[in-house]
Design goal:
Elements: H1 2-11, H2 21-44, H3 49-73, H4 81-98, H5 103-116, H6 118-122, H7 137-169, H8 172-194
Helix pairs in contact: 2-3, 2-4, 3-7, 4-5, 4-7, 7-8
Length: 203
């Protein structure tokens, strides 16, 4: 395994490839942060048991796969998936708070949710990294798909909170109009992040 890692590292030409203890520690730190947010999510989202169990299982599995891949290959390209999972979870907390507030505070929390929501969909674009290591392409498919599905569960759980809120406050048809508009804006947000390389905090 050690010789295989050295060979892969020496053959790599990508700027994100690595073979250092610092990068390994970085992934471990990200995984620890992710685990903290995941545990907090478990506590706050316990009443939706089906979503909760699916999200938790997928996130922990994806985090483990990211760590395993980094150890086996010395490649950091997909290590950022752990951070992306954290970003995908943040919109739920804003949504959970927003639907309980009114007025100016509700508007601020809604805007924060709107800015972070595309992160839940963004992980699907990480399939662009497939083929960087042909020997691990099937491993990478499972890793990215698991992470992307976990992001969708967290993102759409937050959208469900707003949709329920809009249905109660407005007519059902207006609720679906809001959802459609949010999805169109989110697709544009994913485009800004993937191709123009904007981050949420750039706004």
């Amino acid at each position: 395994i050690a010789s295989s890692r050295d060979n892969l590292a020496s053959q790599s030409t990508g700027q994100f490839h690595f073979n250092s203890s610092y990068s390994s520690c970085q992934i471990v730190v990200e995984f620890a942060i992710f685990s903290f947010f995941d545990t907090l999510f478990v506590i706050l989202y316990s009443k939706f048991s089906m979503h909760l169990h699916a999200y938790t299982a997928l996130c922990l599995y994806a985090g483990f796969l990211a760590l395993l891949r980094a150890y086996l290959t010395g490649d950091m390209v997909l290590g950022g998936l752990v951070w992306n999972l954290i970003l995908a979870l943040i919109p739920y907390f804003f949504a959970m708070l927003a639907v309980k507030e009114k007025g100016f505070l509700h508007a601020i929390l809604f805007l924060l949710w709107l800015f972070f929501f595309p992160n839940s969909l963004y992980i699907f674009t990480d399939f662009i990294h497939l083929g960087k290591l042909p020997e691990y392409i099937h491993f990478d498919i499972v890793l990215i798909a698991t992470s992307a599905l976990a992001g969708l569960i967290a993102g759409f759980a937050s959208l469900e909170l707003f949709h329920t809120y809009w249905n109660k406050k407005y007519h059902h048809s207006k609720g679906w109009i809001f959802v459609t508009g949010i999805m169109l804006l989110s697709i544009f947000g994913v485009y800004l992040g993937r191709f123009l390389r904007f981050n949420t905090w750039d706004i």
